[in-house]
Amino acid sequence: MPAEGTFSVTVVDETTVPFDENAETTILSHLLLTSDLRGYVEKPNYYFNHPDDKTYTDLDVLMLTQGYRRFSYKNIIADKNPPISFLPEGGIEISGTLRTNTGLPLAKGNIRLIIPDKNFSTQTITDMSGNFRFSNIMVSDSSRVTVNARDNPGSNNLVITLDGMVLPPSTQYINPVGGITNIDSTLRPYLQNSKKFNNPHSLNEVVIKETNKNKETKPLGLQYILWVEPGARSYYSWEQVF
């Protein structure tokens, strides 16, 4: 079925710029191969470009060479699954602590959360340690969320401290880039191609003897800076610079 969308196309002249499709890293090769291996894979797309019996055999050799050990078959046979640390996101979680200005936690304090863009408001009560939590809060991009404790006596003497969001740990790229063994042979096609299209012309010395007769300068006037709001598609604002 035809699909409608925005696509990117790159046209490469293989006679001018060397191109090896097997050496490319694609979304498929990253998801199914290089993301699970810690070593360098020389030609990741080779195993998916034209799969056949030889590529399957080479893939087994590659996995054995890389020391691929992802599954524990003993746990699988015993029906023991690893714990799930991060569940699918249904909304964000906002938590924190309510304290007095002396640093003591306030138990059974009222905390209100407000999202003005959605006309949403909810309330919760702190525990004995002053902790509170709002779970599964659905907000859109660039929304403003307000948390206050104004419904408590002496609210001017209360301090709210929000906890940081717990995110999955980021992992570094585990497949180092392969080194170029012969830099001359690699850059030769690019150097030859640059000589064909670059034809510089040197100009003789130019001497300017006349001067500008009109020495009056005009004021630049007011200058403005264009700001694009984050996440906006067609909303702009101008800021005047003096």
Explain what the structure shows.
The chain has 242 residues and is of the alpha+beta class. Among the domains are: 75 residues, no CATH class; 71 residues. Helix content is 18%, strand content 20%. The chain contains five helices and eight strands; from the N terminus they run ααααββββββαββ. The strands form three sheets. Strands 4-1-6 form a three-stranded antiparallel sheet, with no helix packed on it. Strand 2 and strand 3 form a beta hairpin. The chain is flat and about 80 Å long. The C terminus is likely disordered.
Beta-strand percentage range:
15-25%
Distance between the termini: 57 Å
**Unreliable segments (pLDDT under 50, ≥5 consecutive)?**
219-242
Strand-pairing-aware structural class = alpha+beta
- Put simply, the count of helices is 5
What is the share of helical residues?
10-25%
Average pLDDT figure: 76
Biggest sheet strand line-up: 4-1-6
Radius of gyration: 31 Å
Overall geometry: flat
- What string gives the helices and strands in order? HHHHEEEEEEHEE
Profile the largest sheet. 3 strands, antiparallel
Count of beta strands? 8
